[in-house]
Design brief:
The structure is a single chain. It is globular and about 55 Å long. It has a four-stranded mixed sheet with strand order 2-1-3-4. About 30% of the residues are buried. A hairpin with a 2-residue loop joins β3 and β4 (about 190-195). It contains eight helices and four strands; from the N terminus they run βαβααααααββα. The protein has helices at about 20-40, 65-85, 100-115, 120-130, 140-150, 155-160, 165-175, 200-205; strands spanning about 15, 40-45, 185-190, 190-195. Residues about 1-5 have low confidence and may be disordered. By secondary structure, it is of the alpha+beta class. The protein has a domain at about 15-50 and about 95-205: Glutaredoxin. α1 runs antiparallel to α4, α3 packs parallel to α5 and α5 runs antiparallel to α6.
């Protein structure tokens, strides 16, 4: 890849997700449906963030801060369960802290070489990861997924052994330099939004800001 490669501004809407983040999985299909509805392209971007923390076990001497964090962790787990069930998603082990480097390489390779195949790769990758079927650190496993969703496995593996890791580092660095460090994240019309709750505002912006904005 050339030095002019940029992580951003390749489509009207950029969506930043982390395979290992359950809220990213909850965001994946609704924003894809929005793009289909508006007939726009999404530029999908990977970003590794801290994994979700499980609630701590009760212990003597727990202070108010510990109690608050425990209740918050349990509330987040309930939210994920409710919204996952509503979408028909399977989410096992919400606190899985896996190495997803190979999956991100597959993601970026398809983004550069075969963008039309990327949505299918993401859909199957998120599904199989959260069903505990996928090892996202395994280049052979991701190579198989690349081939399954329309990419060239041999070319992908060669890229992994060459420019791939440098490209992944460059994309991650550009996102963080611009302060885009949360998932799910949405970049539209120069504005960054964090969280699925902003989809109505994103739809309004992409629709030309006609009429009053959502509140």
């Amino acid at each position: 890849m050339t030095s002019s490669y940029t992580a951003l501004a390749l489509a009207p809407l950029s969506v930043i997700l982390d395979l290992r983040n359950p809220f990213s999985y909850l965001a994946l299909h609704p924003v894809a449906a929005l793009a289909d509805e508006l007939r726009i392209e999404i530029d999908w971007l990977p970003l590794t963030v801290l994994p979700l923390k499980p609630p701590s076990d009760p212990a003597p001497g727990d202070d108010r801060g510990i109690l608050h964090r425990r209740h918050r962790a349990r509330a987040l787990a309930r939210e994920i369960e409710i919204y996952g069930r509503a979408q028909g998603l399977v989410l096992r082990d919400l606190y899985r802290d896996a190495d997803a480097s190979a999956f991100e390489l597959g993601w970026l390779w398809l983004r550069e070489r075969s963008r039309k195949d990327l949505p299918a790769f993401l859909s199957e990758g998120f599904r199989s990861y959260w069903s505990l079927e996928l090892d996202p650190s395994s280049v052979p496993a991701i190579s198989s997924l690349v081939a399954k969703t329309g990419g060239d496995a041999a070319e992908f593996e060669a890229w992994c052994a060459g420019d791939g890791p440098k490209t992944a580092a460059r994309v991650a660095g550009e996102l963080r330099e611009r302060g885009l460090s949360a998932v799910p994240g949405y970049l539209v019309d120069g504005e960054f939004f964090h969280g699925r709750q902003h989809l109505p505002m994103i739809r309004w912006i992409l629709g030309g800001r006609r009429g009053p904005g959502p509140i």
